Amino acid sequence: MDKYAIEGSPKTPSITFDLNGGVLEIKGRSIPENSIEFYKPLVDALDKYTSAAKPATTVNVQLEYFNTSSSKCILDVFKKLEGIHKSGSAVTINWHYEEDDEDMLEAGEDYQAIINVPFKMVMVNE
Amino acid sequence: MVDVFDIYDKMERNNILLSFKGEITSDLLTSILQIMENKMDNMQEEPKMKKKVYNVLVECLQNLYHHLDDCADVAGINEKVRSAIFMIGKLENKYSIFTGNYILNENIHGLKSRLDEVNSLTKEELKEYYKKVLNNGEMSLKGGGGLGMIDIARKTGEKLEYNFLDIDNKVSFFTLNIKVSQQQ
Fold first, then answer.
1. Do B143 and A110 count as a contact with CB atoms less than 8 A apart?
2. Domain range spanning residue B169?
3. Burial of B103 by CB count in 10 Å (0-12 exposed, 13-18 middle, 19+ buried)?
């Protein structure tokens, strides 16, 4: 498996993980009632990637909405990435937020304060 | 006979945009969110306000959804306990979200102290508290982990208004009123 992809839905984001290129993208809305179930396959894929990580890993997160149920799962994903970063692949997390969305910017800053991985806040024009 | 006009008139005066009473299911939440999103688009709501209202709605509705699940797990509780009420209204530039649901009396104390704690914190303290709870490693089976109320308080900048109404020796009726306004 060199590519992992999940299509988006009204309550869940699209996820594409190109293991050869070392690029993970999470886009859309993440508001499922049961987030653990939704994020488990991604956490498992990151576990597998850890042992074969590329020299650099780029993560693009562009969420329009996410619920608090997702927020812990997203933290779990970032903790896996922190582990990958520590074991030698240079991880960068690009956290996208819309120009007027201060809440989304703050949410990114919360993660930045917890996770020891370079974060970039990327403003998107609507 | 049910006084339908009385219900209608009360809703009209509070400018209720949408209300629901009954069992809260996952599909219902999807529909309510879709309807409210369309309504706010049609009302040409400011994107910033729209996002805030949407976010707070998701948390309120999912609180109801998960909570009713908890109640259903307790044997011998009346079927009515699975039912809840939800209303959202807009007066002037302020949205009000009302929820109501039965709660087991034994769970009141825990919920009340969590609400009071959230209400006692400043904006900066809420931010720190959120990060602490986010990072504490605890997770409920559904993934919530107690962040919902903190998030609502943080995003609205308002106190959480609540009430517990005595029903009988097993259950009470819990109501919550969340206000979302522009000034932050």
1. no
2. 16-180
3. buried
